[in-house]
């Protein structure tokens, strides 16, 4: 149990790396939490600092989830080599969830984090790359015609448990609980976005075209 707790702590610390905050402050002298939506996530970085910064933060946040989930293999190699496939899958979920918690409440950024969608996606990649690809396709099918990142993220999140069970036959108890819970949490963490969508005030993001960072920071 002690080793499991240590690995959970490591997963949390990996998730706590505040990519958006550090990239913004280091390269632009900007705390993205003080601009735009105030969220320390890739979407807000795209809006406030532009595509290069946003892409960098997005990649780093995905890597956080991927690395944390893959701690399960380190656990197998260093602590318990007798784990079954299902048990390893469960540990991927446990350590990955800790990274998501770290992203939401990062100890390195005064517990003010992002929504955790990109980090969650990194965990999904480790669980099943095919499921991750389908989730991306669902996101794009919503985002491209509407321009709403939040709506695309929510629909993709809701689709994950359905895709996991119906398309990839992932009926392991831990996986079902994880995917259903994440679908609920993705919606809950986008509560303000839902309110803005209903009010017609939610920001759209352009796929093409250059943004004016000075105006975004004004």
Overview of the molecule:
With 218 residues, the chain is mainly alpha-helical. The chain has one domain (2-217). The chain is 72% helix and 0% strand. It has 12 helices and no strands. It has helices spanning 2-15, 19-28, 42-49, 51-69, 71-78, 85-104, 117-127, 129-146, 149-166, 173-188, 191-199, 213-217. The longest helix has 20 residues, at 85-104. The protein is globular.
Please provide the ordered H/E string of secondary-structure elements: HHHHHHHHHHHH
Q: Tell me the major beta sheet.
A: none
- The share of residues in helices is over 70%
Number of helices: 12
Structural class: mainly alpha
Number of strands: 0
Nearest-integer average pLDDT: 90
Calculate Rg over CA atoms: 17 Å
Residues in β-strands, percent: under 5%
Large-scale geometry: globular
- N- to C-terminal distance: 50 Å
Q: Which spans of ≥5 residues are poorly predicted at pLDDT below 50?
A: 210-215
How many domains, as an integer? 1
Summarize this structure briefly.
This protein has helices spanning 2-15, 19-28, 42-49, 51-69, 71-78, 85-104, 117-127, 129-146, 149-166, 173-188, 191-199, 213-217. The protein is an all-alpha fold.
